[in-house]
Amino acid sequence: MAKEKIPMTPAVRLLRSEKVAFTPHLYTYEEKGGTAVSARELGVAEHAVVKTLIMEDETSTPCIVLMHGDRQVSTKELARAMGAKKVNPCRPDAAMRHSGYQVGGTSPFGTRHDMLVYMEKSILDLPEIYINGGKRGFLVGIDPQDLVRLLHPTLVEVAI
Q1: pTM value surpassing 0.90
Q2: CA 120/CA 118 separation, integer angstroms
Q3: 10-156: what fold?
Q4: Could you please report the per-residue DSSP string of 58-98?
Q5: What are the domain boundaries of the chain?
Q6: At CA 102, angle to CA 97 and CA 103, rounded to 5?
Q7: pLDDT score of 97 more than 90
Q8: What's CA 17's distance to the chain center, in Å?
Q9: 93: buried, middle or exposed (CB in 10 Å: 19+, 13-18, 0-12)?
Q10: Judging by beta carbons within 10 Å of its beta carbon (0-12, 13-18, 19+), is residue 95 exposed, middle or buried?
Q11: What would the pLDDT profile of 5-59 be if each residue is shown by its tens digit?
């Protein structure tokens, strides 16, 4: 079987330029399959698959939220942690405009616009995470400490 070529996304370019060790994981993307599909295809726990969500506050200021694949974000708790009145997921077209990535392939690395990053604190308890590499059907395995080094996230406890 021929080795699949790693997609050269803005995320991969950033990870390489910052000398971050990562393992590429390609899988067959399923529309609306989410982290359950990627975890199944990679043979890893869904808790270790970290989803990248583009959200916005009441002033339409976007931010990135990193959350375990098997958990949801309490927008009420997130708004409180951000000091905002309310927070909601961006519409897909707005998320793409802010991140530069297609929904389902959103990476927190190499986004089109700089955004504040909020990360569920317990992600740091994992030895390795799997996060989108900037293309549907493509995750990268990395040490969660590299998220801290590259993204300087605000740690939050907003999982439900």
Answers
A1: yes
A2: 7
A3: YbaK protein (3.90.960)
A4: TT--EEEEEEETT--B-HHHHHHHHT-S-EEEPPHHHHHHH
A5: 10-156
A6: 100
A7: yes
A8: 19
A9: exposed
A10: buried
A11: 889 999 999 999 999 999 999 999 998 889 999 999 999 999 999 999 999 999 9
